[in-house]
Write a structure and sequence with these properties.
about 500 residues, alpha+beta, about 30% helix
Length: about 500
């Protein structure tokens, strides 16, 4: 996939985030509203169109392509749904052309002959509506590779709705491949409370009453560990253990890893086929970013604290939702700009790498889990070496890492996981050995300690502390303040004298 122009947004990431909570408690409801209006939030607005082309366009479409290549069952069109697939494709082309007229156009040439251009992806194709031989792929696959939304198509017959087609790569703990052909009521059978309280029946009746050109929308939400869009049932072995591991990390890492996951779901009666198109767009925001918007911080904390256990269990957040609520209650709003911006999930190994060096430092369970995930993916791409170390405070371990780095060659990708001190130190050593920024990837599992450069004794030390705190320098024994000023080239934070007497305790 070639992206010739990346969509950008001038506002902060929160500016277009669809915050889902109108009150301090949450219960299942149909919560549908007309989709012809923008929703204002404490940080910006959202909902101007049925589809949203944002700064994640290229990355999310690439992820979708990888998922489909690995699991073709994420795309299904039962034979009688072919007209609905064409209808959905043309409808989405119209929406895309309206949202991004600068790079996407749809023109009717003659009769059923159309021309579609998407300059973001280098696509320029003429096709005859209804003739699959004139498209490079099945209609739903073709348009699904150009929108960030998941797509489900519902057929209405015998007074029931059936999910008989779709392309779903970013499902939240459900299996599209299993659900294809099932009725709407059957699919939602496991959801607690909805039948007893009549929610699902009302939703079913409402969807059946939809009219063309009058779309509606609703939101749904959960929590996800890391920026992981695909948390489908099929991928549970990859993301399920995260629910246990996140309970073992420190508070700062917890706020970076736990994301509020929001789905904006659009319901559209397609004009030609009469099928219902169900669009699901997923947005993710880590708690540390969410906390920067004060009304969102307090509202989300209240919702999580009050959420009934059966609902929390169904959403898969029962083991850590109370900690998330407490984290939000006490988390400071602003993050100093001089701090490293750590990834919220381990990077996928580069498929173009010539080789890999994986470095796992420490005995944390999350370190082991991350390293094993990398190893499983990397060794099917290129020759892979794994280096397991205890600590880069240890001279022997540091020497082992330096020796491995000197063996690397052009095209290597170096992945490092461990606590903040070890990761920063390892990355600095890799840069010193000649590694380029694009050859490095990391995942930090804890922020308890860091490498501190003391301006008084002009040496770097491992200390337990955080920017803004005052500690005793292990070298000169002076009290120093750790500044929110990090230098990647040195792999350390700057610290300077904070006043007070020199400690007479022996250096540890």
């Amino acid at each position: 996939m070639t992206v010739t122009d990346t969509p950008t947004a001038s506002e902060s990431p929160a500016g277009r985030f669809p915050f889902p909570f109108p009150a301090d408690e949450y219960r299942y409801s149909t919560n549908v509203e007309p989709a012809d209006r923008t929703v204002d939030t404490a940080a910006g607005s959202w909902g101007a169109a049925l589809v949203d082309v944002d700064r994640h366009y290229a990355a999310e479409l690439a992820e979708r392509a990888d998922i489909l290549a690995d699991d073709p069952s994420r795309l299904a069109v039962l034979p009688h749904m072919a007209p609905a697939a064409w209808d959905a494709m043309l409808t989405l082309m119209r929406e895309l052309a309206e949202v991004r007229p600068d790079v996407m156009t749809l023109a009717r040439l003659d009769g059923d002959r159309w021309r579609w251009t998407n300059r973001l992806l280098g696509i320029d194709v003429e096709f005859d509506y209804g003739d699959p031989s004139t498209l490079p792929a099945e209609p739903l696959a073709f348009i699904g590779a150009q929108v960030q939304e998941d797509i489900a198509l519902l057929d209405q017959r015998d007074d029931q709705l059936y999910v008989d087609a779709g392309l779903v790569t970013f499902g939240a703990d459900w299996s599209f491949g299993f659900d294809v052909g099932m009725s709407f009521l059957e699919i939602h059978g496991p959801v607690p409370r909805v039948r007893r309280e009549g929610v699902i029946t009302r939703a079913h009746e409402f969807i059946k009453s939809l009219q063309p050109h009058r779309p509606y929308r609703r939101t749904n939400w959960s929590l996800t560990i890391g920026r992981r869009l695909d948390v489908s049932t099929e991928r549970y072995p990859h993301w399920g253990p995260d629910r246990e591991l996140v309970q073992t990390v420190d508070d700062e890492t917890f706020g970076r890893l736990v994301h509020l996951r929001v789905e904006v779901q659009h319901l559209v009666r397609l004009p030609d086929s009469g099928a219902v198109m169900f669009l699901i767009r997923t947005y993710l925001m880590p708690l540390e970013e969410l906390a920067a918007v004060e009304p969102w911080r307090t509202r989300t904390a209240a919702v999580l604290a009050e959420l009934p256990e059966d609902m929390a269990e169904y959403k898969g957040i029962d083991k850590y939702k109370d900690r998330a609520a407490r984290w939000l209650e006490r988390h400071p709003a602003d993050r100093p700009p001089g701090l490293p911006d750590w990834p919220t999930r381990p990077a996928e190994p580069d498929t173009g790498a010539a080789s890999f060096l994986l470095v796992a430092i420490g005995h944390d369970r999350l370190v082991s889990h991350t390293a094993q995930t990398w190893l499983n993916a990397a060794r099917v791409i290129a020759p892979t070496r794994m280096l397991v170390l205890d600590s880069l405070s240890d001279a022997d371990d540091r020497t082992r890492l330096i020796d491995e780095l000197t063996r690397t060659r052009t095209g290597v990708r170096i992945h490092v996981t461990g606590g903040q001190y070890d990761v920063l130190t390892a990355l600095a050593l890799a840069r010193e050995s000649g590694a380029l920024a694009e050859e490095l990837a990391c995942f930090v599992t804890g922020l308890d300690d860091l490498p501190m450069y003391c301006a008084q004794c002009r040496a770097t030390h491992r200390v337990v502390g955080a920017p803004g705190e005052t500690v005793t320098c292990p070298g000169c024994r002076r009290r120093v303040e750790i500044h929110p000023h990090h230098a990647a080239v040195h792999g350390s934070f700057l610290a300077s004298g904070a006043g007070g007497p020199v400690s007479t305790e022996a250096a540890s």
